[in-house]
Amino acid sequence: MSKKTFISFMLSLSFALVLFAATDNNKAMELIRKGNEAYLAAKDPGKAATYFKKAVDLASGSVKVEALLKTAYMSHVQGQKVQAYQDLINEALRIDPGTTLAPKKYRASFRQVFADIKGRAVMNKASAPAATAATSRKAPQKALKAKASGGPKLFVALSYAMGLSETSKEQSWTEPLYGESITYDLASRAGKSANIGLGVGYNLNPSMGVGLGAIILSNDLNASLNAGVPHPYVFNAPRTATGAYVSDVKATILYLNFIYRVSVSKFTVDLFAGPAYFNSSADIINTIAIQDVFPNTSVTMTLATENVKKSSFGFNAGAGLNYFFAKSLGVFVEARYLSGNAAFAPSSGTVPEITLPIGGLSVGGGLIFRF
Q1: Beta partners for residue 334, in sequence order
Q2: How confident is residue 5, by pLDDT bands cut at 50, 70 and 90?
Q3: Domain boundaries for CATH 1.25.40.10 within the chain
Q4: CA-to-CA distance for 183 and 173, rounded, in angstroms?
Q5: At the top level of CATH, which class does the domain 24-128 belong to?
Q6: What residues contact residue 284 under an 8 Å CB cut-off, 6+ apart?
Q7: Tell me, which fold does domain 154-370 have in CATH?
Q8: Residues 242, 223 contacting (CB under 8 angstroms)
Q9: Where are the domain boundaries for CATH 2.40.160.20 in the chain?
Q10: pTM for the model
């Protein structure tokens, strides 16, 4: 997959995720409608309050204001004390200080409570002492700092992913024999990978973060070797020998990512990228033995392999969608592209380095914990 295609895929995925998350207000309005039916038709304020509370968690803007007031109203209808729901009214006024109540939708007693709370809020704002110039300069900084520090800072993610593509590599080299050269053509194909990941991170502010993690990757390796072997008595009359072996490629990948986040209610869309360190191992060809016996009409070839380890650097990038059904627990899906190569050098010295691509595009998901 080319870099241009991958970037287009990531942008399309991110746009689709944002559109999906933006439907929360529509869901909240449907919950408010159900709550109204439960109260007006079924005369069940407890059930109505449940719908309204769910709407508060999903909604934003004017829809959230309505959900907050409806929730407070159900507490009033059930005879709860003002202290039990005045914070809901204050939150609605904080979002929209000009909020008013329609007489047909709320009892006169609740409208009076609302008017008293709104009046106190206006008086408190008007009677606040004027800040000094130094305090005025510091206040915005403190407010920004408080906003940036809101919410959990640390997170831990556990994931499982499957590779979407296979990778292949072809190499050729020669070796002198009978005054000519043996030509070797090696084709290595790595199958779709299976990845297990563990990541930890820190939220610098609501839209930026850093992440450090490890991925254990494994996939099958199929290799075939074709050799053109010179004839000992006839010039330019090579004979063909073939060999093959099956192995696997394993890698432990460490990455450091920079994360950009867009939050919509309980959803967050993450875009991430950063360097990666690949610690890879694979069984590769160590020795090639050619059997060429009289009358030399054909040759055979046997291969010996050894396990070789190699460290290298690459990068990773991707996008993910997180959904938090509790303050500290959520689920996520993500698409990630890992790009790395490893040049495995056999110990015999008679076979050149075997270069294999490591990684590729994968899609998976898992659990995320916030602290």
Answers
A1: 320, 364
A2: low
A3: 24-128
A4: 6
A5: mainly alpha
A6: 223, 247, 305, 306, 308, 344, 346, 351, 354
A7: Porin (2.40.160)
A8: no
A9: 154-370
A10: 0.60
